[in-house]
Amino acid sequence: MRFIGKSALVAIALGAFTTAASAAVNFTTPFPYDTNGVGPGETIVWDFDSVFNPNFSYTGNTYTGPVTNIAAPPAGDTTTYGAAQPASYALPFADAEFTILTGQLTSLSFYLGSLDDYNTISFYSGATLIDSFTGTDLTIPDPADGDQASGNTNRRYFFTFGAADNVNRVVFNSTTPAFEFDDIAAAVSGVPEPSTWAMMILGFGFVGFMLRNGRRRQGAKAIAA
């Protein structure tokens, strides 16, 4: 049996890092009308009023209360909120962008308001689009009709990510006024997921075993010679 080279063994071990979950963003929405019902492990990291976590940044328009023909707060929201607007509007920003500066993002949630079919939320890893959802995607089977009071179009959405996603940028886009959101919550990990650690340990354990086995065989051959 031919001895496996060191470079091949290293490749096998490193392969443990590349077998994480394939890139795909999942979402759930158990909390209509709930601005602060964050998910497991999440904390509010940005609320446009007093919470501005330095590990995150935001670029976009903000409003307090309804602004005629421009934006309306998510149902029940009496605080400052963010909103994306059409590029044709003479506003400081069109799209709104929320960026994760440090750490591995595992989940993210937003309180989204009056969802319309022309609203889109997109998740990126750098410049690479990982996944996106329209208002219609988020409200199925109900219509994304922009109702400013209905629990079908005003609710907290939870988005979860695998290690392979490496999502670090979220873009809100709307071709008609507006796409409103508030109370951004996140769960961030600075270490690999448990499954990644387990595969890494198994990979390097296999490397050690094969290297020891190879040295024993080489020693046996030398004695026989």
Main features:
about 220 residues, alpha+beta, seven-stranded antiparallel sheet, five-stranded antiparallel sheet, 3 helices, 12 strands, globular, disordered N terminus
Describe the protein.
It contains three helices and twelve strands, in the order αβββββββββαβββα. The model is unreliable at 1-22 and 191-198 (pLDDT under 50). α1 runs antiparallel to α3 (194-224). The chain has 225 residues and is of the alpha+beta class. Strands 1, 2, 4, 5, 7, 10 and 12 form a seven-stranded antiparallel beta sheet that branches. The chain has a five-stranded antiparallel beta sheet with strand order 3-6-11-8-9. β8 (119-125) and β9 (128-134) form a beta hairpin. The chain is globular.
Average per-residue pLDDT, rounded, comes to 82
Shape descriptor reads globular
Q: Main β-sheet: number of strands, strand sense, barrel status?
A: 7 strands, antiparallel
Low-confidence stretches: 1-22, 191-198
Q: Termini distance? A: 18 Å
In total, the number of strands is 12
Helix content: 10-25%
Instruction: Please report the number of helical segments.
Output: 3
Strand content: 25-35%
Question: What is the string of SSEs from the N terminus onward?
Answer: HEEEEEEEEEHEEEH
Kindly name the structural category. Answer: alpha+beta
